[in-house]
Specification:
Chains A, B: Its cofactor is pyridoxal 5'-phosphate. Chains A, B: Keywords: Amino-acid biosynthesis, Aminotransferase, Branched-chain amino acid biosynthesis, Pyridoxal phosphate, Transferase. Chains A, B: This is Branched-chain-amino-acid aminotransferase. 2 copies of one chain form a homodimer. Chain A is of the alpha+beta class. The first copy, chain A, has 2 domains: 160 residues, D-amino Acid Aminotransferase, Chain A, domain 1 (2-Layer Sandwich), CATH 3.30.470; 166 residues, Alpha-Beta Barrel (D-amino Acid Aminotransferase, Chain A, domain 2). Helix content of chain A is 23%, strand content 31%. Chain A contains 8 helices and 19 strands. In chain A, the strands form 2 sheets. In chain A, strands 1, 2, 3, 5, 6, 7, 8, 9 and 19 form a 9-stranded mixed beta sheet that branches. In chain A, strands 10, 11, 12, 13, 14, 15, 16, 17 and 18 form a 9-stranded mixed beta sheet that branches. In chain A, helix 2 packs across helix 3. The relative contact order of chain A is 0.14. At the A-B interface, strand 4, helix 1, strand 8, strand 9 and helix 4 of A face strand 4, helix 1, strand 8, strand 9 and helix 4 of B. Bound molecules: pyridoxal-5'-phosphate (2 copies). The site of one pyridoxal-5'-phosphate (PLP) has 14 residues of chain B, from helix 6 and strand 16.
Chain lengths: 354, 354
């Protein structure tokens, strides 16, 4: 398929990414592609960034058939533009699509579309250290029909947003509230998919955490409320007695691309990484006997978010004196180094936008 | 607040509701009201039915902050227009709003807005027996912002759609597939809220049921996969040994307005109704010893959907010879009689649109 390009006549002025709030400024163009049951995916195009006009009965408004992805483009010191494992994001988009009864996209073609879009918007990729271009591909069901059935039409859209560095004053370990009342996801549900409904459903717990002075929520499994699943919208890792443990993928946990990269890095460094169930009780005991060495969340936004404190009921654990641990720091430096082209990419993870 | 009215110059032709597919034809106008954190809900208006134009970064597309309701307007034999317990729908909309971190609406004002809209569209309320005007109020988060936080702006919209009778050839008992793999909702999640994400998440199970020759899914609890929760998007009732049992509201079940009306009707008739947990095992045993007399789903769409057959693994139960039971029939006749003004409304459930 050929990608039509329609360039805007009115270029926006480019702000300093560090001075804007995350996800509020968008570039001049977007990538759009349509789907219908008769034609499949068709009419891929790059058009001026513009409102989407939908019938009020469009299914996205009523039954939540929508999925998304999140990744970033970085500028290297020698002014090249790199994407980090973007093929994994389109792979995951298709996993989400399957769960939400949305038709699959051609992953390679979507990646080609993204590359073309970034080429058009290359002036928008921030150059300052720590800044990047956030990429948001998403698919929405657009058929105007109130029947409870998958939409017969969809739009696949990619928008781009320059973002500042997550850690403006250096990495800050965060305080975490363990959530018992609200559940993020459960076996048989949509937790492993990146679909809209999972996120708004998490706001109530986040609100509680914020009110109580914590910056994120630790999610427990929905069945026994014993096992650790994720932190906010990040995967989570614990270093206990020299080994690294992360909750195993069980259907209610999203498989983060940062998570999979960290597992590969650690294994490459000869560190034992175990994917298994881990209970809050086990963590508490490990902390009490001094074996809980580090804990951190992982995701595209912050890459590594050290956890300084975990709180539930009248229990509280402080991890590594609320300082960033040496393994967390090394993972952060290595991953951001590879992503921004400052370190050699030995794993072939980065993809250059020409 | 004053409701501005802007009438269209181009009226659509009105189809025969019985000849159109559910939820595909909409009336000439819609009700719209905006929200911002500074102004609260403002600018209520009735405008020509038209597309909604949203920034591609609007939160509804990404994080699923959206809720909806569903109710109907009926024409009486003497040509009045009745709504059935509409205040309960706006009550429930606010319960859903709270769960999804959406600001509450003024329930009475929303009902007044709906009444005004139906007044404008009164020619669209079908008169043929069994036909009605389906009403879809919904709220969407509209702020263009990719941050994970509640939207600062919303739209509340009501659209109307003439619909044919659910049972074109008389009531047909349905065959139900019991779902073990997929979960609709779980304690601490969003099951009790009418929010978009719950619905698309259910398509995979429905697809499985359809493929295997069943018309709906019976949902089990997400924790033990033992207790019955709902059927498709209906509440469910069982008549066992003269008593009527329906799953108790536990946070993962939607509180249907049909459900609450049936409970009140049955109690008024002196029939014992018990809201409690009921397991599939208990149902199986009751069926085997001949005590399972009737089973039916309840909801605005079909009112009563008799369940003729339930299937899971190698177990199958046929209920009341797959015929509609006498209690199911009486409930159907009474509820539809009240809704359409053919029976006296002793409970004060109907609201006339003047
Ligand atoms: C629920 C959830 N968990 C984990 C992650 C981390 O995934 P990734 O490393 O691909 O960014 C994300 C998102 O980015 C997420 O939304
Ligand atoms: C999940 C679910 N359960 C039950 C019902 C029945 O509710 P009501 O009787 O108010 O139509 C509905 C919707 O209408 C629903 O969406």
């Amino acid at each position: 398929m050929n990608i039509e390009i329609d360039l805007t006549q009115n270029l926006k002025s480019k702000p300093n990414a560090d001075q804007i709030a995350f996800g509020t400024i968008f570039t001049d163009h977007m990538f759009v592609m349509d789907y219908s049951t008769e034609k499949g995916w068709y009419d891929p195009r790059i058009v001026p960034y513009q409102p989407i006009a939908l019938d009020p009965a469009a299914m996205i408004f009523h039954y939540g058939q929508t999925i998304f992805e999140g990744l970033k483009a970085y500028t290297t010191p020698d002014d090249r533009i790199l994407l980090f494992r973007p093929e994994k994001n389109f792979r995951r988009l298709n996993l989400s699509a399957d769960r939400m009864s949305i038709p699959a996209i051609d992953e390679q073609f979507a990646l080609a579309g993204l590359q073309k879009l970034i080429e058009v918007e290359k002036e928008w990729v921030p150059k300052a250290v720590g800044n990047s271009l956030y990429i948001r591909p998403f698919i929405i069901g657009t058929e105007p029909n109130l029947s409870l059935a998958p939409s017969k039409t969809y739009q696949f859209i990619i928008i781009l947003s320059p973002v500042g560095s997550y850690y403006k004053d250096g990495i800050q370990p965060i305080k975490i509230h363990v959530e018992y009342e609200y559940t993020r996801a459960v076996r048989g549900g949509t937790g492993f998919a990146k679909t809209a409904g999972n996120y708004a459903a998490a706001y109530k717990a986040q609100e509680k955490a914020t009110t109580e002075g914590y910056s994120q929520v630790l999610w427990l499994d929905g069945i026994e409320k014993k096992y650790i699943e994720e932190v906010g919208s990040m995967n989570v890792f614990f270093k206990i007695n020299g080994e690294v443990i992360t909750p195993e993928l069980n259907g209610s946990i999203l498989e983060g691309i940062t998570r999979m990269s960290i597992i590969e890095l650690l294994k490459g460094w000869g560190i034992t990484v175990i994917e298994r169930r881990i209970s809050l009780e086990e963590l508490y005991n490990a902390a009490n006997c001094g074996e809980l060495e580090e804990a951190f969340g992982t995701g595209t936004a912050a890459v590594i978010s050290p956890i300084g404190e975990l709180n539930w009921g009248n229990r509280n654990i402080v991890i590594n004196k609320s300082e960033i641990g040496s393994l967390s720091q090394k993972l952060y430096d290595t991953l951001t180094g590879i992503q921004t082209g400052k370190l050699e990419d030995l794993n072939g993870w980065t993809v250059e936008v020409k």
